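Re: [help] complex structure
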Amino acid sequence: MELGSTDHEIINGVHGRAAADALKLVLKFAEAVGAPRLLPCASAHVDGCLYHGQASLDFVERFVALEGRVRVPTTLNVGSVDLIHPELFIGDAELGAAGKRLMEAHIELGCTPSFTCAPYQTLLRPKFGEQLAWAESNAIVFANSVIGARTNRYGDFIDLACALTGRVPDYGLHRSENRRAGAVIEFQGLDNAGPDQAGGIAVAAGLFIGKHCGDTIAAITGLPNCTSEDDLKALGAAAASSGSVAMFHAVGLTPEAPDLLTATGGMDVPVAGRLGPADVAEILATLSTVPDGAALTAVALGTPHFSLSEFARLMPMLDLAPFSVPVYVNTGRHEWDQLTADGRAARLEKAGVTVVVDTCTYVTAIIRDLSGAVMTNSGKWAYYAPGNLGVDAAFGTLADTLLSAKAGRVVRA
Amino acid sequence: MSARSLVIGKALGAVLKLDDPLSFWGGFDSASGKVIDRFHPQHGACLSGAILFMERGRGSSSGASVLAEAIRLGTAPAAIMLLQEDAIIATGALVAQMLYQIDCPVVAIRDQAEWHRLSALPRLAVEAGADAVLITPQA
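Output below.
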């Protein structure tokens, strides 16, 4: 391992005891993954504030006791409770208290209390080419693919250790040669799909690359012309749910893929899939564990956290209210502030929509009635909730979910 | 031998080979030490104290937290013998060592034939050192 002058400073305690302690973990991790040196990182996004047991808390309290402070701007992923609306938590009280302490301990270390899985939307938008130590699978894919910043799939413990040291191991996606596409996925006949369909197509693309491309970075061609940043967010989240995807290229849409040749680094790479509208429908059908027409108990939106542009698409659909079932939307507290300030929060509440911040309905006890199916426009929610919550899921586009909330059963726009 | 220690330590126990990779998050219960992934071929198997052979890691990075918690509770495998390096599993075991001074050595065997040969033995002693890995069959 080549150590730089900053590393020596940290080891010698110049930056405090917590940084020195955390660097030991970063160096052991770097050895385990075969990184020859550490790099400075521009920011960190920490996924350690979701409570998984006493070890989660012991790790953070160790650095609080050593008076640690993060050395780079650090955002926090969702926690186990909504600190702004704590009454929404209906789980075990002791678990809720430990989860709350875990979130607070991270703030004591100087992390920004963002509690969002989409810090790139408003708070901490990385710049192209920056080296990051990010956790949270959707945020990792988004940072690499949509922004062109560079992070590996960091996660519990190592994310905070990088934040406390400002150092990240030099391997994998930090290096240009490992960021090229090794497979092409061609979509055909979808160029002119509308904005509502584009959301579903993006989810299908994500599920497909997660399942079929493994660690190989895919270059996707032929996505609809109207594919938005929100759709690319959904694509990445779905890909990171069905597989361990850390990066994709959407040719003509993402910054390292202005054309296919650039995405592949000039190499001739195999076509791993050719998909048309029927294939998209077939892939999306696998996300629903109930048939069309099935009774619903709730609609869950905002996994990853809803952006302000997604709220802009949702607002006109509130004209459908009153809804027959509760509608939950997860978002960040930064977006929530904006919604409160401009009066949209009040309109959402009047329409019977529950906005959940700081956490997410698929990881914690929020949704009160799980006796029937829950409909979502999120590939990630549909992928995980049946296992996490023991609930049936139905997948649809944003318009489908709101029409279904009105009808109280699964219907399509 | 091409084996490499990802996390150092010593362990002794019965060999348990997983037919598929396991995600510790969502697939393993740190309270009971059992595989809870309903789709895993060894669903219900108890991994506590075993010399666990799994080819590679799988799934969410939160698996590191679940593994560290299991090591704290004494429900974790005694050692984890991977075919390939895995950062999530290594992190969980490194953190448990750092917080609780409990060793759960993690080794990347890096040779398919050797991994299969060792995984077919009934009991093993593992000494994963910084420079060398010593794996000894036990009666």
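Chain A is about 40% helix and 15% strand.
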